[in-house]
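Exercise 7. Given the components listed, write out the predicted structure of the assembled complex. Treat all entries as one system.
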Amino acid sequence: MKHIKAVNQKAARIEAWVAYEAEQTESTELDVVGLESRPPHEQNGPNIPLGCSLVFAPGWEADSAGGTAGLCQPVERDIFDCHLSCFWPAHVPDQLNHSPDWTSKCASAQKDWRKLDLIFP
Amino acid sequence: MMRTLAKGAVALIVAVTGIPITVAAQDTALWYLGTYTRDILVWDEASEQVIDRIEMGHDIPADIVVNEAKDRIYVRDGTAMYMELVDLKTNEVVDEFTLSQGNVTVRINGFAPHPSDEKAVIFAKRYTKLRDRYVVEGPFLLEYDLTNKAVSDTIPWPNDQERESIRFQYSPDGNILYIFAEDIIALDSNSYEEVDRWQISTPIESGVGRSRFSVAPQPYDEEGIATSLFRMTDPVQNRRIMGIAKVRLSEKEVSFFTLGESRPVGNFTLAPDGNKAYGLLEQGNIAEYEFWEFDLINQRVSRRVPFEGRPRMTLGVSADGERLFIYNAGNTIDIYDSATFEYLKQIVFDEDTTFEVMIPQAGTFTP
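Answer.
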């Protein structure tokens, strides 16, 4: 018998997760969830995996809060820092191993971005 | 009232005057700005012109460390594999070293030169590329002989706890190596045996929670003193409050006064005359930015002025104290009048910048 009822969205999500985990514990076959799909216990919500390299959320299109106010202004300011400090490594060439001179023909991203090389794997 | 905390967890509280300790105002300062090319720009603050450029041997000068004598800089490249030494009298690269060789890559993630410039401490990781995998070892704290270009010692981890990130610096006389872990640990710089410890991981006064303050002196701090914003818990109302602290690391002393409720203010920057300091209130997601001016004589926030900031900002103050610089990320420095906080102009470089150090051209300076 349930004695507690979820009264807000977060509590409802926790309740759904607990129910799902209990169901999985009883099941002998575990499911594999794709990163692009929603979690099975939460069919109407987004699935946002942790880890910057797992999330396709280009830094110059959306900030960590999902908006644009936290982005560099203009957004080109961020591109080279992502290249060097590797915050969104999937979206700019890898500076440490494969493309150390990616910025050599384009000293300033805001002024000369057309000179940036395209990198093909 | 300004308060002083000293000598570890047991606090000594005394009333002192609010007279700031200052160095003489400077006429100008030179900025050394790393860029996403091979060059370091030398920018003169007074003329607001790039007066020289230093061509490095490797791409993207990404980190710059100034030596104790302020006559050379150590520059780490973008791959973190090479350290180059630049003589600031000639603005030329005079030496370089690397710990990488063949299939072994050693990335240098931290560097502190001894005041003698004969040795340095290096924080590094080693990556060995084998036929089927990489072997990652470390991180290590190493003593590096800058004269013979060889690793001369391995420094034991404090408490035998390996760390993925750590800060360290030598004392000005070179006798002590400070390790900034959960506590500040003083090691003999030759034997690397612990000679002292400042237990800042525990509250320095009962009820105030863990206090966080900087021990890194600013360009216009008096030698041996670091002025910074700090935060602590108000033991009466159980809330976080902020204030300004002056830390003398060699004596394990903190003098501070409180300002009020903690707000998201950072980029605390001491003015050359030592009477004022500036900070930036930053709430980037709602684009709320303010200049804060701190009156260190009367120990209060003297002005708060909203301005059109940007999400990534660093604040600097000119050597004459008349201009404020907003920079970081990109190829520009925005200049504001420190008296009125009015926007004056924008300096535009041809290159995006990575990292910068600023060296006043007279008096004392500790990066």
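Discussion: The mean pLDDT of chain A is 71. Chain A has two domains: 1-47, 49-121.
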